[in-house]
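Continuing the batch. This is chain 6 of the set; chains 1 through 5 are on the previous pages. Same settings as before, nothing changed between runs. Recording input and output for traceability.
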Amino acid sequence: MEIYYGVLWAIMAMVCWGVADYSARTATIQLGSAIRTSFYVHLIGLFIPTVVLIFRIIAGYYSDIDFVFLLTGGSLVGFLFTLNYVLYYRGLSTGSVSVVTAVASAFAVVAVIFSAIFLGENFSLLQFSLVVIITLGIALTSFKDASISGSSTGLKYAIACMFITGLAVCVLKPLVEVFGPILAIIVPMFVSSLLTGIWAIRMAVPLKLSCELGIKNVFIAGVLDSVGFICIAVGFVLAPVFIVSPISAGSPIVTIVLARVLIAERVSSIQTAGILVTVGGVIILAAVTN
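Output for chain 6:
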């Protein structure tokens, strides 16, 4: 039953990240800088886990903490987050939303491979087959008709994000198991905010933010991105990486639907097939893990 609830948390992460990605894409275009968007998304995203952390500290929830492991692992994940977000938002602002989100979300493949090698996770043949099906569905959403402009733009950023995120997920899993969801994600988010801010200053990127410069979309992206991380962290407590990662990686479905509805971005027939395959795989995986 715990694994089943892990699936539900992964689905919530998928929805949160899908909406956050669309908002971040709009904010990056308005701000004209992927680094600036990434900085504010992380900064705003720190609010919710920080409030929860304060209440837990007051309640005496944390007593014996291995700060060396927490800061070392958290800093590594934070560094990977920094690279991932800047590259990802850069891809979203220059390329097709459908292509960039779909290819980047194939990190599930990398995460599954790394979880088997480094974390020793085992899974049944049926579960592995469903992971492959979900990944195939996500991959199909990255294909567009040649007549649709921007189909290949941003692809190089998305491929880099795929590997970076897959590695970050496998480093995050042990942190969640040892320190719990909140503490495990707040350190990487803080480190990522700090590194992104330093990066912006070194690149002479102005950090000005106003109502005209994407504050609404940055706020939405920051809050939902943070909630998505909390959801996936809770999912890792209840279920293995190879189950939680492929489901949460289905966020492109939400992003593509929003792009289609709100900005009329065309969706090809093969992308529609990919969405259906992904949704079907997620439903079946949720059912067999109950």
